[in-house]
Each structure stands twice: as structure tokens, then as C-alpha cells.
Amino acid sequence: MKFSLLVSALCLFAPMAANAACTATDFVIKDFSVSAASAGMRSKMVMKGELVNHCAEAAAAQIEVQAKDGSGNVLQTKKGWPAGTTNIAPGKSVQFDLGRQFHYDPSMQTYAAGIVNVRSW
Prior knowledge:
The chain is of the alpha+beta class. The chain is 16% helix and 46% strand. It has one domain (22-119): Immunoglobulin-like, CATH 2.60.40. The chain has a 3-stranded antiparallel β-sheet, with no helix packed on it. The protein has a 3-stranded antiparallel β-sheet with strand order 4-3-6. Strand 1 (27-39) and strand 2 form a beta hairpin. The longest helix has 19 residues, at 2-20. The radius of gyration is 19 Å and the shape is elongated. Residues 1-20 form the signal peptide.
């Protein structure tokens, strides 16, 4: 009975331990750039970058992009998992573009991108 309880507890907490191995500081966003392209009657946002895994294990990271006005007020915030539900191998990277999640606003002046969550799938 005690053995099966121990096995059950290990199965319950094993996924949590896997998530704790890598942190947001193990990931880096490189070459993040923002532009607007004309798409017919409206403008399309392009917010490209590269997410790099510097963790010793395969993991995934969720990024957040904020669009701010000239005074630094946040106008829009969106989150995304650049690799979807796929882990990124150690030392590897994935390209991303979160622009399609944003609505063009001419008052958007500055942008910030950061890592907000890390997990192993």
C-alpha cells in the first residue's frame, strides 16, 4: 500500500519537477524587430524575432509582446508560444512573428518582448 502511494505521488509530482529545470533566464529573444506593412485597406503588423534555448534541457518558452505609446503607456499586450507545444532542444532556436495578433494603431511607438513562462511539453 505504501509503495503504491509513493509511486502515485511520484507520478503526480514528476511533471512539476520537469517544469522547474529551466527558467525564463535560460531563454533569450534575439533580433526582435517590428514593422507595419500595408495589406489592402489596412496595415499588417510584423513582429519577428528568434527565441533561443540556453537551458541544458529541451523546453519551451512563452513570450509576451507589449506595444506602447510615446508616453510609455501599454496599448496592447499579447502572449504566444513560438514553438507551440514542441520543446526547443538545448542550444537551438525557433523563429516567431506575433504581429498577426496585434491590431495596427498609429499611436504605437515602442515595443517590448520578454519571456513570461517556461515549461516542458
